[in-house]
Design a protein that fits this description.
The structure is a homodimer. By secondary structure, the first copy, chain A, is α+β, with helices and mostly antiparallel strands. Chain A contains 17 helices and 18 strands.
């Protein structure tokens, strides 16, 4: 694929944008450009030429028509909480923020669906549906700030995927603007639909490279009436990893099945200034059970407790009040920020079949130790999704730079060998794109490039993402 | 899009196919060609030039390379139970049967996944996983003969979609052969995966027009221990349709929520020579509840009974033994065959948000009566998926031909107006393709055509399906 040549945003183009969407929606001041030059991914900075904040799908279509006319790259941006650099304008140009499209258009209690705009904050939406007895289980750690549109773009997962699935499993329809400014719709408030190709499922998880989502149809379920959270300390890494498939094998499907190693807990205790029960345990499982019948959940919790104790658990702590559960969740959600505050780091979002978690963990530790690197691992054990944080700490810059890439390649090669892949829920984006050939053959990448071309023949939408840098781009 | 020009299969090409995949896998005898000229769709017949029955993905790749070289159309075929003509070789050429790839490769009880080939019969698979305490809930009426590969191609639904979802919701990975013979893989035994575009979800439901599926990864769940089936007669069409959203609204999610009008029941009684309780009721709901706790299900059944009685139910019959449930299911599964035996017919697979079912039903009856057509409606009320069977009966041929197309157009226009679409689970295929413009704009169809082109630039894979016939194709 040839490298697209882009133009810079000129004052004339800024004027065109202002005429199209209104001057108050077009930002060129230094603060705005700086704010939109980074997301939550490492410490990367790419300054856009202009930031636009449209309020309607029609305004987005106008922006895309201008971008098409002048060959200007456009990087869509939700709340900027992504961890793979999806919202970084690596080729400059226009950052298109969806924060102006932030309405919950409908919560339909008869059909158990919601219709929302992409700029709605995930937690705001969760609370709105819970207020009417419904449930949207997708629960990314950044839910307090991330947008549903970004969740769709990355196919966000989170801890409840083990029972309920990820973002894609709740999206039944979308409206989106294509790079040429045309508006397409697919699906709706429908559980079944085979009317043409599944554009919804192709666009979900496409990291803003195919289309800009402007309206979202989400399936909802009744809110489970009861929940119990168990915290289970272990004195080895292997025991909890082995307990996970045993729980599933017993026919219990927890709503959450999280794994965390000691370092993650310790770093977070330091970061928050709070203490965690059994913080000295080598690893913990955090297991949530939910449902409508308290007795059933109690019995399931007892069964889970038996299984983890058979697998070497040191204790089983029960959080059965909202306050106790809230404390544990606050701790769990702070892991990412805590690691970030500890050291320069690089996070890999590995995913394997859940019974391969032991092999992955042991392999990661062995690889890291060979390169003299420290790793902190935690993640969603129930779905085999392990976040491997590689910390620089006080390693000299030169050694860090030399060690990091081959260590990551070894970790990803192991992941693939175990039947897994290189991103479970964070996306490939900018920071993982050159590892794609570890997971995908040249034929698979060619097919994905052809799909990209079908949507975006000029390559103006979120360029520099997902596909590995080619030889000529390196020059 | 220009019309593809295809070549006929010559004796030389048959020889090439025999050399590539073995002479016993290449059929040119009259019986084989006749057998593969039709599927379960109406009374349509399109004779292929040759039928190939490969046993491996590599053999399929060889066939596709030969087809590419000679520009021969290839129509993939599962068990031929489809209802939209997806397996009809409308341009002749090669019918590629997947019945030789019929192994259950693995049922992985630790990870709750199965790996299968496309030619496995759905019921054989269901029974194999149930034998080890697991559950694959997708349950098309043709489960006794249809193949999992065909279920994927059409994204088969069935009665349990209301609680568990449709085929796409259980497929986490595939291996497939592209039209040029290259083999691609996507996903695996993974609940989370955002490593590149979601090729799995794009290929599922693409009706064999993008790739030939050769291996399937299916998510499984623990088998619910208990089930109750309720049969609820009503004396109007509106009452049961109104009861459906009320049940969901009460927080109960049945595993099955079927609707059937009197004519469907009567035709089936005649067809099977059996009688149905309350056969004279205007309509029935068939409601299944499942779960692991018998007490919980009993309480849910009582709640459902209250709701349907509040909504005018004439009675609530309980089937709580396997035998009683089996009888009702046998009856329900025979609807399609019974309608077929009654008259020449045309079936439309409408889907609307579930609370629009009343409006759809009333509208269908009104439209049909204006055209003097008889309709028999039944389907999956829980997910708004209504099968509208239009019966010719003794209508003169000329009048039937004149009335049918405009009546269908009106029914589909109503469906779309109600927030629905023109196929819920049968696919567009050959028989609905010219109605696609009712559901999709020219821009949406162009995008789908571009996706098709990305996979199949020569247009050799299952041509004549899904996309409306263009003006030049009509000449």
């Amino acid at each position: 694929m040839a490298v697209a040549t882009f133009n810079r945003v000129t004052p004339k183009i800024v004027e065109r944008l202002c005429n199209a969407v209104g001057g108050d929606c077009v930002l060129v001041d230094d603060d705005s450009l700086t704010l939109h030059a980074s997301d939550e991914t490492e410490d990367l900075v790419f300054r856009p030429d202009v930031v636009v904040v449209p309020k309607t799908a029609e305004a987005i279509a106008d922006i895309m028509r201008i971008a098409t006319e002048y060959r200007i790259p456009v990087t869509p941006r939700g709340a900027g909480t992504g961890l793979s650099g999806g919202a970084l304008p690596v080729h400059g140009g226009i950052v298109l923020s969806t924060k102006g499209l932030n309405r919950i258009l409908e919560i339909d209690r008869e059909n158990l669906f919601a219709v929302v705009e992409p700029g709605v904050i995930t937690q705001v939406f969760q609370e709105a549906v819970e207020a009417v007895g419904l449930f949207y289980p997708v629960d990314p750690a950044s839910r307090g700030s991330c947008f549903l549109g970004g969740n769709l773009a990355e196919c966000a997962g989170g801890p409840r995927a083990v029972k309920y699935g990820v973002t894609k499993d709740f999206v039944t329809g979308i409206e989106a603007v294509l790079p040429d400014g045309s508006l397409v719709r697919h699906g709706g408030k429908l559980l079944k639909n085979v009317t043409g190709y599944n554009l919804t499922q192709l666009i979900v998880g496409s990291e803003g490279t195919l289309a800009i989502i402007t309206k979202i149809y989400l399936r909802l379920i009744p809110l489970p009436k009861h929940r119990i959270l168990l915290l289970v300390p272990f004195n080895s890494l292997e025991e909890p990893a082995r307990a996970v498939p045993a729980i599933m094998h017993a026919g219990v499907v927890p709503s959450v099945l999280e794994f965390m190693e000691r370092d993650a807990v310790e770093i977070t205790e330091r970061h928050l200034g709070k203490s965690f029960p059994h913080a000295d345990a080598v690893a913990h499982l955090m297991i949530e059970l939910d449902g409508n019948d308290e007795g059933v959940i109690q019995r399931e919790a007892e069964r889970v407790a038996e299984i983890v104790l058979e697998h070497g658990a040191a204790d089983v702590l029960v959080a059965d009040t909202d306050a106790k559960m809230g404390e544990l969740w606050a701790m769990r959600r702070a892991f990412g920020a805590a690691v970030k505050s500890e050291s320069i780091y690089k996070e890999e979002d590995t995913v394997v079949p859940r019974n391969q978690l032991v092999a992955l963990l042991i392999g990661v530790k062995e690889i890291a130790s060979r390169y003299g690197l420290r790793t902190v691992c935690y993640g969603h054990a129930g779905d085999g999704n392990l976040h491997v944080n590689i910390l620089k700490m006080d390693m000299p810059e030169e050694r860090w730079k030399t060690a990091l890439d081959p260590a990551i390649r070894e970790i990803f090669a192991l992941t693939v060998k175990l039947g897994g892949l290189i991103s479970g829920e964070h996306g490939i984006g900018y920071v993982q794109k050159n590892y794609m050939p570890i997971a995908s053959t040249e034929q698979e990448l060619s097919l994905m490039r052809a799909i990209k071309h079908a949507f975006d023949p000029l390559g103006i939408l979120n360029p520099g993402k997902l596909f590995p840098t080619t030889e000529d781009q390196k020059l």
